[in-house]
Every structure is written in structure tokens, then in C-alpha cells.
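Researcher: Next entry in the queue.
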Amino acid sequence: MPAPHRPRGFTLIELLVGTAIGALVLTGIGLVFVSQATQYQAHASRRAVQSSVRQAMSFVERHVRNAGYGVDPDRAILAYDSFDAVGNARGVGYPDGITVHARDLYFRRRATEVGTDFLRFDLPLQRTLHKGEILLVLCPGAVRYAYVTVGETAQAKATSVRLDTTPAPLDSPSGPPGSLFRELSTLNEACFHDTEPPVVVRVERTSFYVSSFDDDGDPATAGTTPYLMLHRGVDINEDGNVDTADATPLAVGIEQLQVAYILNTLGDTPPPLVGVDDAVPWGETWHIATPELDRPRLVDAYASPRRLGSHPANIRQVRLTLVARSTRADTQRPGDDVLTPGVLGSEGPPLPSGTTSWRQLENLGTTPAKAFDPRGGGFSRAVLRGSIAPKNLLMRSQFTPVHLGGG
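Model: Structure for this entry, 407 residues:
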């Protein structure tokens, strides 16, 4: 009868070998997981960047396309080349700003009494009129009219509003309307006090600019997250001032907004392009700096010399360029460069030899402000361009709305 075999376990060498093989397998699985997670985060970051820039462009396009509806073309669009939002002034190497004006479709009142510092309405207000809102007072037939600005917030159910009689402030996209919307002396004319009361409509002011601030409470990233900001030019928080505190963050990660303008032309003459090879006059000065005899008028024919000059009323197309970046940097990569032509990651082709005039971001130049430099930093970036034709700037006469009152 054979002797039974005694139970036998693993030797120490077998255990060590098995442990080593298991460790290698687990390490491989871990590396694959980490790699997949990293790739997922990178793709998710890029998708978020692309989504942000598309949504921002869609919103800005919609307002720019409507610019000038029911508003004189000479004050429908205001340009701000290189706007430093923190300093509320023109800077060097900053993103651009743009302000557009269009008439509110749903506000209409009769002015039963008109003064140089107030308006009295035939019906109570259905909504609050905030300080800074623009009103357009139209005489019967809209032959004469005046733009004025609300000076004190009027609550809903009020039947009158005080007008702003203070000196016009510095014109900026983060402040109240300027001198173009304070035609108080015009209200002394007889047609505003005739037996047929004038009609009052509201003009919407919409400004877009880029600013950065702390949005997550992290001291390491304080003031470094860029946003596309929306400002209505009104005292939204009702603190008595119209300033940056009344702005609304519109889209996160928008690092650059560059704007250029294609002006009116005739025949085969190449259209002037303002804002690429030359500077855009700041805000209202583009209108005011033009001699009065050369400013386009509503009644001017499209072939009139006034319609062919460098003036905001003659804008036929607005070119927008937006750059969005990821909200957090990736320390494992240098980050995209969308400013330098030909660099891997930029959206433009390499420059031909001898070419020096082509620019990746319109008139930004090569030395942008540090907080808005679209190069490196470990950020993923996306560039989106759009061209918008504001057809309402072709308007050649004012009009009085026929719909019933509201607002």
C-alpha cells in the first residue's frame, strides 16, 4: 500500500513570483485607467471650451444683428478698441468691447407732459425703469425726436420718470449711456408740447466686453478666470450707480473678443476694413469726431458721400473673433497658442515668406495683456469667427410704433 502524499503549499519563491506578476498586472490596469481618465478629462475640457465659445458667439451675434432697429444708425454701434475693464479705460493689448442699441418691441407710452428733466405718461408702468435706461421721445409723425436717459429708477405702477440732467460721463461699455443719449434741450421744441402727445419708446443698450475675476474662492486662481460680460448700461442692483457691479457674467473662459468693421462701398471698390490695420475711434468719438457736415443722415441716399466715409453709421458688416480657454490649466502640457501664426495649435495657416500683415486675432498685436494672453499656460483653447450684417443700419427714416402700449 503506497504511502499517502503530505499536503504541499507554495514555496517562498513561488509567492514572490506570483506577487510580482500580480503587481505588474495591477500597475498596467492602473496606468490604463489613469490614461483613459486623463484623455476623458482632456476631451471633456475641449468640448466645454467649444460649447462655451459657440454659445457666446450665438448670443453676441443675435444682438449685433438687431443693432439699429428703430435707432439712428449713427448711434446703433459703438466700438471700444482694447478695453481695460478693471481700469474702465482704453488700454494696450486688451480684448475689445462693443455696444449696440436697438428699440424695445414691447414698450410704448404717450407722454402727456414733457419737461427737460421729466416725462409723465398716460398709463402706469408695468415694469421698473432703471436708472440709465434710454428712452426715445417721438413727436407726431416722428419728424423730430430726442434720446434721453432715465436719471432715477421708476418703479412699476409709476406714471412719471425723472431724466438724467448730470454731465455726460466717460463713455465706456461698463458705464451708463453718454452724450448721444442726453438730448434734453431738444425737448423744448414745440412739437413735444402739441395737442397730440409724443410717443415714448425704450431703447435697449447691450454691451459686451471681457473681464476676469475670482469665481471659485481659490486664492491661487483669484482674478484669473476670464468671462465674457454683458452690461445693459443700467443700475440693475439699484445702488445709485451704473458701473461694473451691474454687469452679468455671460460665458466662462472667454479670453479674447476682437472686433473689426467692414464699411460701406460702391461698385468694385474694396470695402474699408476698420479695426485691423488701423485703430477704431473710441466709443462715441467715432461719431462726434466726424465733422457734422460729414456725418451720415437718415435721409441720405446710399450713394451719398456721407454714406461712404469712416463712420459707424456706414458699417455693413461686423467681424467678431472669440477665443475661449479651459477653466483650469493642465500642468502636463504647454497649452494651445492661438495667437502666433503657424504655431501648432493656432487656427491659422503658416505665413508665406515675406508676409507681415496677416494677423491671427485682428488688431490684438503680439504683446497682449498678461491676463488675456491666448498662448500657453496649459490651457486648451478654441477660436471662433463670425461676420454679421446689421441690416437695420440701412434705415432711412424714423417711425412711430403702431402697436398698443406696454412695459
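Model: The mean pLDDT is 86.
Researcher: Noted, moving on.
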